[in-house]
Write a structure and sequence with these properties.
It contains nine helices and eight strands. With 234 residues, the protein is an alpha/beta fold. A five-stranded parallel β-sheet has the order 2-6-1-7-8, sandwiched between helices. A three-stranded antiparallel β-sheet has the order 3-4-5, with helices on one face. The longest helix is centred in the C-terminal third of the chain and has 17 residues. It binds cytidine-5'-diphosphate. Cytidine-5'-diphosphate (CDP) binds next to helix 2, helix 4 and helix 8.
């Protein structure tokens, strides 16, 4: 690994990009290296979708979903479990760490994420968590909306084929029953809604550094980001 000198570290790092582009993997590795926390904001939108499904709320009922987002209690806390999870995700007191990754949630999460009141509630929580600094925040609108003054913004992209393949092997490794075509369709469905919604659509911030990881290993992406850290000047 290259020896680098870090003059001053960026304190808030935004990583945005489409579904399964590797944001969380990269975000966690960077955060671990520097002792920062990594917040995967997708967890919050997934929690709203899961809770709506569990409560029998129609995801197209904007008023009911918005009301739910404003009252839901989402706790993301360090885990003691030994099952590959990064954190425990506790929703209204119940551990739903793996439930938020279900195909049903994948199918409905982008629908609930378009609602302005849902986004406002989640953005408020995310900004509160970021206040302490030393944070890598991962999502779709972090560099554009949630933390427009982030010290470093990265937009991590990859073609849909590569992303689907990565998610396929990730799910397979977790013992899930998976079908590559279904994963591809599900990613395309979410990308379409996430990119075209009126509020906080998925897009790179003007000052984001674009990284396309199609032909890159995780190690190479990390090396590229570490170069950005060493070049960082406040
Ligand atoms: O992990 P993956 O890339 O599959 O998705 P995720 O980051 O868990 O996000 C799930 C969904 O939440 C996205 O498809 C978006 O609809 C929504 N989301 C969002 O709207 N804004 C964010 N900052 C993060 C996620």
């Amino acid at each position: 690994m290259t020896q680098r000198v870090y003059k001053k570290l960026p304190s808030t790092i935004a990583i945005d990009g489409p579904a399964a582009s590797g944001k969380t993997t990269i975000g966690n590795l960077i955060a671990n290296k520097f002792g920062y926390i990594c917040l995967d904001t997708g967890i919050m939108y997934r929690a709203v979708a899961l809770q709506a499904l569990d409560e029998g709320i129609n995801v197209f009922d904007e008023e009911a979903v918005s009301e739910l987002a404003e009252r839901i209690d989402i706790e993301i806390r360090p885990t003691a479990a030994d099952d590959e999870r990064q954190f425990d995700v506790i929703i209204d007191g119940i551990d739903h760490t793996w439930d938020i990754r279900s195909p049903q949630v994948n199918q409905n999460v982008s629908e609930v994420s378009v609602y302005p009141r849902v986004r406002a509630a989640m953005t408020k929580l995310q900004r509160q968590i970021a206040e302490q600094g030393k944070i890598v925040m991962v999502g779709r609108d972090i560099g554009t909306v949630v933390l427009p003054d982030a010290d470093l913004k990265i937009y991590l992209d990859a073609s849909v084929d590569v992303r689907a393949e990565r998610r396929y092997f990730e799910d397979l490794g977790r013992g899930k029953k998976v079908c590559l075509e279904e994963i591809m369709e599900s990613l395309q469905h979410r990308d379409e809604i996430d990119s075209n919604r009126a509020v906080a659509p998925l897009k790179p911030a003007q000052d984001a550094v674009l990284i396309n990881s199609d032909d890159m290993t995780v190690f190479q992406v990390i090396e590229t980001i570490l170069d950005l850290f060493s070049e960082y000047q406040p």
